[in-house]
């Protein structure tokens, strides 16, 4: 039986650039790094208030390049204040790529991560 989700893996071409984005734009932290038995460089990002991690993987030299199809997948994070988050991220060079847009549960927006992955930002409606 499954006990819980541990991590989600995303392949990238530039591990350093991707880690920088998640640290600077979203405030995530690297919990650990290592090299896999197949030679891939791995970094695990801790997510606030969650046991699940994001595993970022860069394959060894010579591996095919990552090409992310539009709208293939995205990660979603809840933010307290979407306008404040957007202002702070833009000041660091990470502007929103879409939104903010009202939704049934509050406001949503998107920011583009390196490699073409999207990150959804959700501000839940006040109850």
Descriptive account of the structure:
This protein has helices at residues 15-26, 82-91; strands at 7-11, 29-35, 41-46, 53-58, 74-78, 96-103, 106-112, 118-124. The protein has 127 residues and is an alpha/beta fold. It has a single domain (7-60, 68-124), classed as 2,3-Dihydroxybiphenyl 1,2-Dioxygenase, domain 1, CATH 3.10.180. The strands form 2 sheets. Strands 1-4-3-2 form a 4-stranded mixed beta sheet, covered by helices on one side. A hairpin with a 5-residue loop joins β7 and β8 (118-124). The chain is globular, with a radius of gyration of 16 Å. The model has no long low-confidence stretch (mean pLDDT 92).
Offer a concise description of the structure.
With 127 residues, this protein is of the alpha/beta class. 17% of the residues lie in helices and 40% in strands. It has a single domain (7-60, 68-124), classed as 2,3-Dihydroxybiphenyl 1,2-Dioxygenase, domain 1, CATH 3.10.180.10.
Offer a few descriptive terms.
127 residues, four-stranded mixed β-sheet, alpha/beta, 2 helices, globular, 8 strands, 2,3-Dihydroxybiphenyl 1,2-Dioxygenase, domain 1, single chain
Sheet with most strands: strand arrangement = 1-4-3-2
CATH topology: 2,3-Dihydroxybiphenyl 1,2-Dioxygenase, domain 1
Helix content: 10-25%
The dominant shape is globular
Report on the biggest sheet: 4 strands, mixed
- CATH class, named Alpha Beta
**Number of helices, counting only DSSP H or I runs of 4 residues or more:** 2
Number of strands: 8
Radius of gyration: 16 Å
Low-confidence stretches: none
